[in-house]
Amino acid sequence: MKKKLTLALIGLAAMSALVLTACGNNGTQADKSDEKVLKIATEGTYAPFSYHDEKGDLTGYDVEVAKAVAQKIGYKAEFVEAPWDAMLAAFDAGKVDVVFNQVGITAEREEKYLFSTPYTMSHMVVVTNTDNKDIKGLADLDGKKAAQSLTSNYGKTAEDAGATLVSVNGFAQAADLLASNQADVTLNDDVAYLDYMKQQPNAPLKVVETAKEGVPSAVLIHKDDKELQGKINQALKELSEDGTLAKISEEFFGKDISK
What we know:
The protein is an alpha/beta fold. It folds into two domains: 37-120 and 217-253, D-Maltodextrin-Binding Protein, domain 2, CATH 3.40.190.10; 124-210, 3-Layer(aba) Sandwich (D-Maltodextrin-Binding Protein, domain 2), CATH 3.40.190.
């Protein structure tokens, strides 16, 4: 009798263990399925903002800021890489939640999208081949070929100045076209130019004009997602106050570009 009772207790314990294990597994799976994911669009070819390091890992100022923001609001960061034009198309189609890619704030974009508070302040530069003597600034772009992303803020500025746009996916490609004289000029921000020249010190490029006013860049958010906008703005505020944005800036630029 004692033996039968012992076997019964062992069987009951085993069944209890199986039930607990099943509950535990179901709980874990539910946790994973309930995990909030922030789908972040970025180019991945736009150093030092968004690029792959020597190990092949995606990094850069925008990428690290995006990771910090996602963590701050309790989301898992999931990156979707694409050239600028394709990126905006994916965003418009609702395939991603936000864009972290030095998106300039314009009145035209504000009619269609929401923006976060700015997390970058840069200055536009006019860049040419070192041998170019015709272009001394933005006023000299009429009739020239400008290497730009077609839907970028800088592309619109170049076009408004009279330039014909030559489509590129990023500054590195624009620099190659300038070096080979397949384009006359490119407009971009000063930190992207300085970083490129740090990596390619012998590149035949020069800055002929630097804009006096800073250009703010922010997170691009869907027009109907004000709740997410509020969360991101609060996260950026806290990351600025605790020094995280300044630390990330120093890592990639040696100075704070977040203010």
